[in-house]
Specification:
Structural class: alpha+beta
Radius of gyration: 41 Å
GO molecular function: protein phosphatase activator activity
Number of strands: 12
Protein name: Serine/threonine-protein phosphatase 4 regulatory subunit 3
Family: Belongs to the SMEK family.
Strand order of the largest sheet: 4-3-2-1-7-6-5
Oligomer: single chain
Organism: Cyprinus carpio
GO biological process, one term: DNA damage response
Length: about 800
């Protein structure tokens, strides 16, 4: 069997700084004569060819990541990685590498440790600091080498950062950059590229503050244009100064805020576009850059939030009918980006942010925007609405309930959301799926508040079913009438053409899924709506759709209702014969083994297993002839058996009364005692028993409850000679020693429909004599003379 521990994928880093998959194989470590040392070998699992042969160099920095990844650099700009299938294999190879390099396998980077002695390290730390060469054009190569040599050592990185910071070295380097650019000194520009890139990898906030200042940031970007690996320099500064335009949709009066916005955009551009893709060793060296951008966004949100004049003007122009479409589009996009920035805030700051927007009237503004015809503006408004719903659904619910007291149903915010969902023009209904998720969040009782004075669940669900549910179910009701689907459903903003096309069926599936969610989480509201509007019958019409996913949605809806085991629903289903479309869909599906087949069988199996008596009788009495030939599963025959058992109990009320007596807690015995007695009954050999010997010794509890057992004893005396019919065999039991135990056995078999009760007539004189003799003593066990017949 293949050793999966050493199964690996080999990756190399290409010129675009992306990882290329070189193949899958099995890794081993061995001494290679040609390379004069221990090496890592990977042979392809397909043909055994050599995918990798790499000597473990004592000075190469190997790094272990995520328990299953080992990465290293073979040469400049040539990084390798082994991705292991199992952690054990990674650990094994990692120990080999550490053994060659003389490192502790517990480290994650083999060269992270400094190879100096403790004394030398102490002397190095106590030394005054790193001395930088003079910042001159002729010394740039020396500076670049110093920066590159300092990066592997944390201690040297720290000293280099302090030297750069204290001597104002970065500004001197940027002055040299301008000189080199004027002189077109490509060699100097290439050295400056390496130096500035290395300074980024120092991961020092104080250095970033200098580099990203207003007077330095464009020169820093200019240095990063002259990548030595590229034949021509990039034109990042040209893009930032001419192509990228900063638009103030609302004039910003605070110069500090404006400068902070410019800075954040440019630093984000450096991170995303200017800096090369970091190698696996450099990823953690840019964490401070990520933090710099993050905290800048937090500052921008806070400064805008505190500027009441700015926000007031923003919402005023958003809702002003005189605002032209282009301007409104810019305003909505700004507000959307503003809300996206807020996701970086801490929870308490985010609470204050959304509370400010709520006080400024963001929900009434969104209501106005969603009523407009511009699709792009409505899309941006939907994104803003999703931020609000995810943050605080209770705030949105409170607003829509308050506006219902003043406005008509057609212009309610939640109804606008439903209509946009219905009218989504995207063939894949991407917007409708997003809006359906928002509606689901709003009607979810799990996130509704309950206080001593009011219950949000009761109030909002009453509002929703009164003012909104008819809008949500309108496409379903219109598409499942008996008339031909040539009519159109007219809403205030679109015409919904009814048909069985893919887009329409997708929409109906979304609506049915939301109704299914309501059945599961709402109680009497959805029950009253389904029964009064005959919703289940309408939904089951969809089982005839040519699209299987829609038919399955309809089946899931009915299955969820049946799963509640609510007799109101059951009577509604039986009264309207709602199993008929389910049976038709099952029969039309034929012998195909697919999801529809499985869903229908599972539904009937649930009715059988849970013994839903009313539905069992309804199904057998009305649909047995259609289903009796289905024999590749035992579900329908099992349903018929359940039905016959019910009829038998109805015809024999004495047995039913005996069941009720035995189920009464007053006659229950210890479960363990019953199990022990049953074990004794079936393990006892008849030949070992003597007359008068009891098979099961009476328990203390039975002795104390002797008076309570009198009704059963009398009943069993009348049935002293009883047949147990099981799988075609009849076992005659001549007497009983523990009536409760025997009744328990009898009823267990009765439940399975495998036993019937009959009186057994006397066969010969000998049996009668034995019975007379035995009646004077305690009842004996089964004797060899008991009759066995088939």
């Amino acid at each position: 069997m293949t050793d999966t521990r050493r199964r690996v994928k080999v990756y190399t880093l290409n010129e675009d700084r992306q990882w290329d998959d070189r193949g899958t194989g099995h890794v081993s470590s061995a001494y290679v004569e040609r390379l004069k040392g221990m090496s890592l070998l990977v042979r392809a699992e397909s043909d055994g060819s050599l995918l990798l042969e790499s000597k473990i160099n004592p000075n190469t920095a190997y790094q272990k990541q995520q328990d299953t990844l080992i990465v290293w650099s073979e040469a400049e700009n040539y990084d390798l990685a082994l991705s292991f299938q199992e952690k054990a294999g990674c650990d094994e190879i990692w120990e080999k590498i550490c053994q060659v390099q003389g490192k502790d396998p517990s480290v994650d980077i083999t060269q992270e440790l400094i190879d100096e002695s403790e004394e030398e390290r102490f002397d190095d730390m106590s030394s005054p600091g790193l001395e930088l060469p003079p910042c001159e054009l002729s010394r740039l190569e020396e500076v670049a080498e110093l920066v590159a040599s300092s990066l592997p050592s944390p201690l040297r990185r720290e000293k280099l950062s302090l030297a750069l910071e204290n001597e104002g070295y970065i500004r001197k380097l940027l002055e040299l950059f301008r000189v080199c650019e004027d002189l077109e000194n490509r060699e100097g520009l290439h050295h400056l590229y390496d130096i500035i890139k290395g300074i980024f990898l120092l991961n020092r906030t104080a250095l970033f503050e200098v580099m990203f200042s207003e007077e330095c940031i464009m020169d820093v970007i200019g240095c990063l244009e002259f990548d030595p690996s590229l034949p021509q320099p990039r034109r990042h500064r040209e893009f930032l100064t001419t192509t990228a335009r900063f638009k103030e949709v609302i004039p910003i009066s605070d110069p500090e805020l404006r400068q902070k916005i410019h800075q954040t955009y440019r630093v984000q551009y450096i991170q995303d576009m200017v800096l090369p893709t970091p190698s696996v060793f450099e990823e953690n060296m840019l964490s401070t850059l990520h933090s710099f951008i993050f905290f800048n966004k937090v500052e921008i949100v806070g400064m805008l939030q505190d500027d009441e004049k700015f926000l007031t003007e923003l919402f005023a122009q958003l809702t002003d009918e005189a605002t032209d479409d282009d301007k409104r589009h810019e305003l909505v996009n700004f507000l959307k980006e503003f809300c996206a920035f807020s996701q970086t805030l801490q929870p308490q700051n985010r609470d204050a942010f959304f509370k400010t927007l709520s006080n400024m009237g963001i929900l009434p503004a969104l209501e106005v925007i969603l009523g407009m015809d511009d699709v792009q503006v409505r899309g941006a408004a939907t994104d803003i609405f999703s931020y609000l719903v995810e943050y605080n659904p209770s705030m949105v619910r409170e607003f829509v309930m308050q506006e219902s007291q003043q406005n008509d149903d057609d212009i309610l915010l939640i109804n606008l959301i439903i209509e946009h969902m219905i009218c989504d023009t995207d063939p894949e209904l991407g917007g409708a799926v997003q809006l359906m998720g928002l509606l689901r969040t709003l009607v979810d009782p799990e996130n509704m508040l309950a206080t001593a004075n009011k219950t949000e669940k009761t109030e909002f669900l009453s509002f929703f079913y009164k003012h909104c549910m008819h809008v949500l179910s309108a496409p379903l009701l219109a598409n499942t009438t008996e008339e031909k689907p040539s009519k159109a459903l007219q809403t205030s903003h679109c015409v919904f053409v009814l048909s069985d096309d893919f887009q329409t069926c997708q929409l109906l599936a979304l609506i049915v899924e939301l109704l299914t969610f309501c059945v599961e989480h709402h109680t009497y509201h959805i029950k009253n709506y389904i029964i009064n509007k005959d919703i289940l019958r309408r939904v089951l019409v969809l089982t005839a759709s040519q699209h299987a996913f829609l038919a399955l949605c309809a089946l899931r809806f009915m299955r969820k209702i049946i799963g509640l085991k609510d007799e109101f629903y059951n009577r509604y289903i039986m009264r309207n014969f709602l199993f008929e479309p389910v049976v038709k869909a099952f029969l039309n599906n034929g012998s195909r083994y697919n999801l529809i087949n499985s869903a229908v069988i599972e539904m009937f199996e649930y009715v059988r297993v849970e013994d839903v008596k009313s539905l069992t009788a309804h199904i057998i009495e009305n649909y047995w002839k259609a289903l009796e030939d289905v024999d590749y599963v035992q579900t329908f025959k099992g349903l018929k058996l359940r039905y016959e058992q019910q009829r038998e109990r109805q015809d024999n009320p004495k047995l039913d009364s005996m069941r009720s007596i035995l189920r009464n807690h007053r006659f229950r015995r210890d479960a363990r005692t019953l199990e022990d007695e049953e074990e004794m009954w079936f393990n006892t050999d008849e030949e070992d028993l003597e007359d008068g010997e009891a098979v099961v010794p009476p328990s203390d509890k039975m002795k104390s409850d002797e008076d309570l057992m009198d009704p059963i004893s009398k009943f069993m005396e009348r049935k002293k000679r009883t047949l147990l019919q099981h799988a075609g065999g009849i076992i005659l039991m001549s007497s009983y020693y523990d009536p409760l135990f025997v009744c328990k056995m009898l009823l267990t078999l009765l439940d399975g429909g495998l036993v019937g009760l009959v009186d057994y007539p006397d066969d010969d004189e000998e049996d009668e004599d034995e019975e007379d003799a035995d009646s004077k003593e305690e009842s004996p066990p089964l004797s060899k003379k008991s009759k066995l017949s088939s």
